[in-house]
Amino acid sequence: MLIVADxxxxxxxxxxxxxxxxxxxxxxxxxxxxxxxxxxLLARSVTRVNRExxxxxxVRFVGxxxxxxxxxDLDWLEQAGIRFSAAPGCNANSVAExxxxxxxxxxxxxxLSDWSQLSVGxxxxxxxxxxxxxxxxxxxxxxxxxxxxxxxxxxxxxxFVALEEAMKCNVVSLHTPLTREGDHPTLHMIGNAELExxxxxxxxxxxxxxxxxxxxxxxxRLEQGNAPVVVLDVWEQEPRIHPELVDRVWLAxxxxxxxxxxxxxxxxxxxxxxxxxxxxxxxxxKAGQFLPEPALSKISFTSSAxxxxxxxxxxxxxxxxxxxxxxxxxxxxxxxxxxxAAFDRLxxxxxxxxxxSSLKIQLxxxxxxxxxxxxxxxxxxxx
Length: 383
What we know:
Helices cover 37% and strands 15% of the residues. It has a six-stranded parallel sheet. Strands 2-1-3-4-5 form a five-stranded parallel sheet. The model has no long low-confidence stretch (mean pLDDT 95). Belongs to the D-isomer specific 2-hydroxyacid dehydrogenase family. PdxB subfamily.
């Protein structure tokens, strides 16, 4: 059995090596010729999986190690009798921790002694938005949830607010899928009208899908007075993103919010489980058995530690988005082709990033409030 896989999927040999021969190819440039004699295709979001790629091939199972499926022609796969599986929720915690690190930086930038003074509107309350909401709620933030499709399905659920209400929060964080049809399409959901409602004291974060924001409208808004502070991890026209937009936003990262090692490995594990089920094989492997020891394993705080300082130190020890921002900005010179190649390299060569659960926090005489905050974020505690 031949398995053709995106070369950037982690632990391919560990999970799939005993199932068949593995052929690694570039996900961005994957062609029909690459998969012609394949039985299994393992992809990521950079590969368009459709008739053009697969027609005439032997492929009978497609797995994407990503939460999104807008790069996959699901209708055609069903018509062709090809089994499909995705990895919903695999990197939800990674993205939530990305947003928490951004919030920590933003609160410090605004001079807030208590970051939970910020109200946060979460637009899109699926796996990622739901995980973020749970963390923020436990941390004491005022959280408002906006998810029109869920609001329609869950008519008795009064926790959902309209987009206009969510956009009034101090922070607006976008976590919707990309949809072009239906009652609530998300393509360019945030356009001129929505951006005009945001002011300089507000923060807009997009770690969902780049096309949810009209980038031309956003660039125009950022060139006006009283413009909001903006953080983008996802972009229209990836990988050849708009250098002027990079220059205008506060933090710019190369679609890596979900790129923790735990998130990526969990995506691989979920597809391994789905493929094992498809082939009628027992599931014998778990992601945890392949995770290496983290480079940083423990941080200690004493009773003299200030709560906000301790949280900032621990969060940024695990992940500080300013490092990825600097790397992306350094790639913005050159032609669109050169910038696109550099964007892909940043993702392909992304350094190991561990989640907060990999770090043990030792606390000596600290408050219960600080202990609860660390637990809410996801750190392991030793008291």
